[in-house]
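> run fold Gliding motility-associated C-terminal domain-containing protein
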Amino acid sequence: MITILGLVSLASRADHIIGGEMYYTWLNATGTGNNYQVTLKLFVRCDAAIGQIDPDVNIAIYDGAGNYYTTLREITRNNLEQYTATDIDPCIVNPPYVCYQIAYYTTQVTLPFNPRGYYATFQRCCRRTRLTNIFSDDNNVGGSYFTKIPGTANGFDRNSGPRFSAEKGTIVCANNKFRYDYAATDPEGDSLVYSFSTAYTGGDRDNPKPNVSAAPPYTPVSYNAPFSASQPLGDKATIDPKTGVISGIAPRAGLYIVTVSVNEYRNGVFIGEHKKEFQFTVENCVRQVVAALPDKFADCDGFVINFINNSTPNKEYVWDFGDGNTFTTNNLASFPHRYADTGTYRVKLTVDPSSSCGDSAFSTVRVYPQLLPSFDFNGLCTTKPTQFLNTSTNDVGTFDYFKWDFGVTAVTSDTSNNQSPTWQYTTPGSYTVKFFMSTTKGCEKEITKTIEIYDKPPFTATGDTLQCIKDELQLHAESTMAGSFSWAPLYNIRNENTADPFVSPKKDTAYNVTFTDLTGCVNTKRVRIDVRDTVLVKTSADSLICTGDPVDLAAEADGNYAFTWVNLDTRQIISRANTVTVTPVGTGAYYVQVDLGSCNSRDSIFFRTVDPPKAFAGLDTTICFGEKVLLQASGGAYYSWSPTETLTSPRKATTTAWPKDTTTYMVTVTDTLGCPKPVTAQRTIAVVPPVPAFAGNDTIIIKGQPFQLHASGGVQYRWSPADGLSSTTIPDPVTGYNRDITYRVKVYTREGCMGEDDIHVRFMTGPEIYIPNAFTPNGDGVNDVFRPMPVGFTRMEYFRIYNRWGEEIYSSVEYLKGWDGKKKGSPAAADTYVWIVGGTNVAGQMVEKRGTVTLIR
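> ok
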């Protein structure tokens, strides 16, 4: 949206000033001059504090020639008005707050009669940074606000100038249609003509409010492309010269400086020019419904027009094509409509017609088939003008306007309105030429072509080359441009005025070829001929190679000749490059030949093959963890094993290995028989991990009752001693022994690896829970843990310990796990503690016991 004189942020150096206007009113005349009232209006953001608004200003007076006359000092601010946008469009979803103030400074001055009149001027710095349409990022761009009072020469010295009167804030959505009244009034009712004009700079950071404003003329601000003084809001916003109404399509979001000039006329005679500057703030707002389509369809390409709808989506769209036909749809997609006859049609698109926020848009359609744009050009050399030829055709009406843009970005004058103009390019390069045309029927089209401008006509020619003294050589030149060729010198040359002459020099010679295009532009190239009566080639020396290895054949010649490699055993050509890779089988012989026309030379090379070593590292083996294995390699003279960390002699053919887990050992074997190629072999030693033999946890059982052992970790088991055991060769024998005993079990894997473990079985009377009455957690390994010893119990339900204040300090349900005498990680005090333990015995009965224990430190 555009919020007129909108607000963003408060800055220093009076960046709260967002525009200005100065005008004069004639009061009366005296014997020596005229009395005028001069009024300065400064437009100020609403968020400016009262202390930021200048309490007084100085207005400098210069005569019409720019000579200083006087300064009207300390003109007090006599009024401060505030304006807001009150007519809020209910169809805008997010209307912004629009507000600005006007500070008035009014004074009177008597000016002596002067034929050239006077300037009254005020300057103030600085404008806000990051303005969209003018450069202001250095925060050093101020403004000049002035009025020109007519002199006696034109008889209008008793005139009161126009002043802008439309001060109402308004809201406009960005990239949407808008309308803003920029009208002025004139006290005498003179005619007023409006136009956009430039804003001016004034003041700077070092002197933001000059004591005496500078003399005219003033420097225009620098506009950022594509904006300009005549298009401050872009090319889609215009001002009505009769009414001062600005309308069109709003630009993108940003801050814009807009200056409007109004020229005052009385009975057709120009009196003077008056200016007003506004700052527009452009933001985004959203309308509920927007109707949008191209403002015209004027390419005159046929009777079928493809209509484009850029409106708000998901609405009802009613089209009136201006030929008596209508079309209603809910689809935004473009669609064709066929007109029955030629003519100019006014198309109306209505969006969401049943809504109070519905919108409509119009477009002009011109149906006058057929306008076919095209152009040609001649002369692309910087030394000659380029001629552009309009070759467009049009079936209805005649051409009434042409506009050429020759694509020279460094200048703005590279345009023409002639039908077939010329343009002199001064710099070679690519240029994009645009050609716009229109007809008396309103048809419009533009086409674009890219042309290549050269300082010399482009062409190619044979490069520098070698030639056998016995031969004749055909040279060649060509160009994409039309033109002629000539060759020199006239030494042993035929057809010298063609693109393809024949030459047969007997010594080194340089021929020059000259190309001349049809406009007379000339370019020349030189072709150097190096004449050879002999040619030389050399390849590598004969050598031994390993059987099966590829080998690179390389040759060097004294020129850029044609190479041919031949296998002498098969007489077959194997390559036409200067290098080739071959893999000889057994012995091999090759020759290379170079050719330059009728001149040639050759050289040969012989290879003898030697077999590489036949490395062997032995067969893969499996060992038990902790065992050693002998590695033995063969097939060569030298050996190197890896990895070396678990080997005794990694540089010998035979070495001992003690891998801790499965390892693949690699041996590299080399020989002394003529093939230095190292060959590798490998042997994998699979290591069976340590046998996880487990006889079970030490346990306490009820005396007189059988107890089943259970071992794990392998596939075979051997128990000892055999006392009380039902079997010594199964994993889970039963013991009926009634005395404390330790059993040992040997566990074997499928590979025959063995591991051992034992279990201590204690026999006690039960079912019963045995528990001590004291313990000493001093870390000596004796009586360090206080725990219950359940005999004949199938489950521990709870084991808890409390201090004398009833605070629970330990709890567990794990078998034979006890208290280590700590409370929350720190040693508990030496004291008497209460315990309680409960569990289920083999009879399924719940048993609970309580008591005390003494912790001794």
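The chain is about 0% helix and 50% strand.
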